[in-house]
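Hi all, long-time lurker, first post. I run a small reading group and we've been trying to get comfortable going from sequence to structure in the token notation. Rather than ask abstract questions, I figured I'd post a concrete chain and ask someone more experienced to write out its structure so we can walk through it together at our next meeting. Sequence below, copied exactly:
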Amino acid sequence: MQGTDFRYMSGFGGYFETEAVEGALPKGRNSPQRPAFGLYAEQLSGSAFTAPRHENRRSWLYRLRPSADHRPFVRYQGAKLFAPGTVQEPLAPNRLRWNPPSDLPEGADFVDGMVTMLANRDPSDLEGVAVHLYRAQKSMENRVFAALADAGYHDFTVAQARAEKLGIANVRFRQIDAESIDQPAASLDGVLCRWGYMLMADPEAALRETRRILKPGARLALAAWAGPAENPWASLPMGELVERGHVERPEPGAPGQFRWARPGTIEEHLDAAGFTEYEVDTVDFANVYPSVDAWVATNRDCSMMLRSALEQLDPAEREDVIAAIREKALPFVREDGSAVVPARTWVAVAAA
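-- Answer (accepted) --
Happy to help. Here is the structure in token form:
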């Protein structure tokens, strides 16, 4: 347009600056302690924080008000059917910060020294995150730190309630990653894992971590199920769903209930994890149920895969599946209608 003074900022990968009021941009620095005109300096990064300095792309902004400035949260009173989260109080979107805690436990071991600082989502959602601190000033004595595989909110509440009922006060329940245990080396007197390692993505890593946190000479006790034929209490209901195509047959070696069923498997994993002294044996027992329906209901409560598969079926197909299970379960049913179903498990004890 003739007579108009255009100024362009052209180029690729260059740096440019512009200001609405002359003197607003700082000279020789990006974030002065007191920007001109009382502005607020903010950096908007356009690169990963791991990028080398010379490759970093960013923008420095100098604003009248900081972008984080906001009024105190007030819950919206409309949308009556909208109910985010499961907590009683609304989740405020305000920025939160806290000072270092001044009342951490004194003279405590790892378990008693833990302090929860931050958590979101209810544990029963199986999603979310929690942040904990701990101050450990002495070793654990006559107590065990237990890791529960696939433990959800229900497991913790039931376990805690049982401990309280029995009057056991020196026990704590935590959910951790067994393949990377947040626990000092050589700090535990013993570890017990019932039917857990075969469900983990990398059981050898979990066993190595278990050996790391055990004191020299301390023991690991574990259990893992024998094969499907020896455990019809579990394989019969799930097998019916597999036969009908409602559940995929597990891949060989994939995490699962019978992953360690083959004789010699436990010994191989203990060897690989560095355990040199161990014993492995089998234990036979029986599960007794008031009825076949109670048998199915118990498995449904214990197996997320079985519960999910049954819930996804239409009512007619679900009833057909349960009827087929009742028929196949007849060899285990007694005259009073109860069911006695055999089970077999591997048990092992190993010294660190």
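A couple of things your group might point at:
The chain has a mean pLDDT of 83.
The first helix runs from residue 153 to 165.
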